[in-house]
Design goal:
The chain is an alpha/beta fold. The chain contains eight helices and 14 strands. Helices cover about 25% and strands about 25% of the residues. It binds zinc ion (2 copies).
Length: about 260
C-alpha cells in the first residue's frame, strides 16, 4: 500500500506544513479533501475515484467542491464521496447548498450525469473499493468523526482522523494482525492543553498515553500538527523518546 500526505502550503518550501488534510492511498482513494482540489492537475485528480471523509471541519473538506468540479466528466462514473450520515447531511446543508457552492448533489445533477455520488458508511462496516477494505471506526472529536482502517490484504493502516483521547480505535487496532502504521494526530503543544481540550484534539502528553494503548511495535506517524506551533510540538513529541514514532512528511510516499 502506498500512502502520501499531500503538501498543503502553497509557495512554501516546507511540504510538511499541514494547514489542511488529505491523504492519498494507492493513487485512487483520498482520505479527506482539505487540499485535494488544489493538488496537481485535473487529470491527476481524476485518478481519485473515492473520497472518504472523516468529518466536516473545513481543514478536511475545504477543497471538496473544487475537486468535484475539477474531475467532473459527464461521460464517466462520478467520484464517490463516502461519509457518515452526519457528514453527508452536512455536505448537503452546509456546502452544496446554492450559497457556499452550487447544489451539485441535486439541482445541478441532470438525469444520468451526476457530479458526485454520495455513499453513507457505518461504524465497523467495511467498504470495498479498488482492492481496499476500508472500515470506519468512531473517534472522539467535536463533531461525529470516523477514523478509517485501510486494508489491502497484505497491510492495514489506520488513519486516526481528528480525535481527543479515544478507546474504540485501539480495540480495533488490537485485532489487526497486519497493522503496519497508525497516523495519529497531535495538534497542539502541551502548554495549549486547554485549547486541545476545548477543540477535541491532543497534545504530546496525551499522544504518549494513546501510544501506550496502541499495539506494541506498530509505527506511529504524528500528523495534524498545527503549523503555528509546529516547532514546539515536534520538540515535545521528540522528547517522548518513542522509538516507533515519526513525524509525517508532506509530499513523500510511505510504503507498507
Ligand atoms: Zn476537526
Ligand atoms: Zn482537522
Amino acid at each position: 500500500m502506498k500512502v502520501s500526505m499531500l503538501a498543503s502550503a502553497s509557495g512554501s518550501t516546507d511540504d510538511s506544513l499541514q494547514y489542511v488534510s488529505t491523504f492519498i492511498v494507492d493513487q485512487v482513494v483520498a482520505i479527506d479533501a482539505g487540499c485535494l482540489g488544489a493538488w496537481k492537475t485535473p487529470e491527476d485528480q481524476s485518478q481519485i475515484e473515492h473520497v472518504f471523509l472523516t468529518h466536516t471541519h473545513a481543514d478536511h473538506v475545504a477543497t471538496l467542491p473544487i475537486f468535484v468540479e475539477n474531475v467532473y466528466d459527464p461521460a464517466t462514473r462520478p467520484v464517490v464521496v463516502h461519509g457518515s450520515g452526519a457528514v453527508l447531511d452536512s455536505l448537503k446543508r452546509d456546502i452544496f447548498n446554492d450559497r457556499v457552492w452550487p447544489d451539485f448533489i441535486e439541482r445541478l445533477a441532470p438525469e444520468g450525469r451526476p457530479f458526485l455520488e454520495l455513499h453513507e458508511v457505518r461504524q465497523d462496516e467495511a467498504v470495498e473499493v479498488a482492492g481496499l477494505n476500508i472500515t470506519p471506526v468512531p473517534v472522539d472529536h467535536l463533531v461525529p468523526t470516523f477514523a478509517y482502517v485501510v486494508d489491502d490484504g497484505h497491510a492495514s493502516v489506520i488513519f486516526g482522523a481528528d480525535t481527543a483521547p479515544t478507546q474504540r480505535l485501539w480495540e480495533v487496532a488490537a485485532d489487526l494482525t497486519n497493522l503496519k502504521a497508525v497516523f495519529l494526530e497531535c495538534a497542539f503543544p502541551n502548554d495549549m492543553q486547554w485549547l486541545a481540550d476545548l477543540s477535541g484534539h491532543m497534545t504530546p502528553r496525551q499522544f504518549a498515553l494513546e501510544a501506550a494503548k496502541a499495539p506494541l511495535d506498530v509505527p506511529l506517524v504524528a500528523v495534524h500538527i498545527k503549523p503555528r506551533y509546529r516547532r514546539q510540538t515536534i520538540a515535545e513529541l521528540s522528547a517522548l523518546d518513542l522509538p516507533r514514532l515519526t513525524i509525517a512528511k508532506g509530499g513523500g510516499i510511505h510504503e507498507f
